[in-house]
Amino acid sequence: MTAASVSAPPHGATLRIAERFGPTLQGEGPSAGQPALFIRLSGCNLSCSWCDTPYTWDARRFNLRDQRERVPVADLVAWALDHPVPLIVITGGEPLMQQRHLPALAGPLLQAGRRLEIETNGTVTPDPALLVDGLHFNVSPKLDNANVPHKRRIKPAALEALSASGQAVFKFVACNLADLDEIAELVERFAMTQVWVMPEGVTADHVLGRAHLLAEAVIARGWSLSLRLHVLLWGDERGR
Ligand code: SF4
Q1: Mean pLDDT, to the nearest integer, of 25-50?
Q2: What is the pLDDT at residue 3?
Q3: Those residues with Cβ within 8 angstroms of residue 101's Cβ, 6 or more apart along the chain or in another chain
Q4: May I ask the CATH architecture of the domain 3-173?
Q5: What pLDDT score was predicted for residue 12?
Q6: What is the pLDDT of residue 11?
Q7: If you take atom 8 of ligand 1, which residue's CA is the nearest one?
Q8: DSSP state, 126?
Q9: What is the distance between the alpha carbons of residues 37 and 83, in angstroms, rounded to a whole number?
Q10: What number of CA atoms fall less than 13 Å from residue 127's CA on the CB side?
Q11: Residue 167 clears pLDDT 90, i.e. is over it
């Protein structure tokens, strides 16, 4: 399917967002270092212990009504097109929880020549309407280190669909060398071809320390290593 075939926005479509910001840099994965705009959707179906965006979902720690707003998709399109930035990252939370209205956002942006990356935890099967040229998925299946039960964080049908789409890269958050064995099992089971390992951490010291710990073993397995550029530059400052 091509960008031109993405359906027109349904009249009145809205998305629940936590924030939008940029231009900044994509900090993670294959596009790290490239200028990007971010639209962060609110809500998540997981509860990772080290989550760096708990204000998108954790009602025990945040008054979520203060942390989110419902925005017309047309306003988000206009905001994004107002910036001459080629890459737009749709992140969360878990953005595919609101995927019913994502084609309405993606269509006009793709038609205007922008590239899109949707960052997902890999638990939701993507709508075929999102499998279009110019749109990629940065899929981050969660490992045991997230302290979420396996049944909730690994959804085989969703991972199979994302892997088969040919539009997904898989980016695993790792804390230690043992995590790499767990990644290898998932890579084999779901035939994942583009694999990135990213150290967990919201300080430069943690990210770099874990990167040093993981780097040689990641190279030996033929995978790629992602740092967290925004963390190295700005720590866990919000809106970066
Ligand atoms: S999937 Fe992402 S947003 Fe959701 S709890 Fe885990 S780290 Fe946070």
Answers
A1: 98
A2: 46
A3: 10, 13, 14, 15, 73
A4: Alpha-Beta Barrel (3.20)
A5: 84
A6: 64
A7: 51
A8: P
A9: 8
A10: 16
A11: yes
Q: How far is the CA of 110 from the centre of ligand 1 (A)?
A: 26
Contact of 92 with 42, CB cutoff 8 Å: yes
Instruction: Return the pLDDT at 9.
Output: 52
- Other Cβ atoms less than 10 A from the Cβ of 117: the count is 23
Which phi and psi angles does 59 have, rounded to 5°? -70, -15
Asked if residue 93 has its Cβ within 6 Å of ligand 1, the reply is: yes
What gap in Å lies between CA 240 and CA 231, rounded to an integer? 9
Tell me, using a 6 A CB cutoff, whether residue 44 lines ligand 1.
yes
Residues 29 and 36: their CA atoms lie apart, in Å, by 13
Tokens of 205: 């010291």
- Say if CB 172 and CB 196 are below 8 A apart: yes
What is the arithmetic mean of pLDDT over 70-93? Answer: 98
For the CA of 123, the nearest atom of ligand 1 = 1
Ligand 1 site, residue 120, Cβ cutoff 6 A: no
Provide DSSP, 154-183: --HHHHHHHHHHT-EEEEEEESSTHHHHHH
Which token pair is 231? Answer: 């963390």
Domain chopping of the chain, boundaries:
3-173
The mean per-residue pLDDT over the stretch 204-222 comes to 98
Nearest CA to ligand 1 atom 3: 93
Site to probe by mutation for ligand 1, drawn from 45, 94, 137, 155 as the one with most ligand atoms within 8 Å of Cβ, is 94
| Residue owning tokens 């071809």 | 193
Averaged pLDDT of the chain: 95
| Structure tokens, 106 | 């993606």
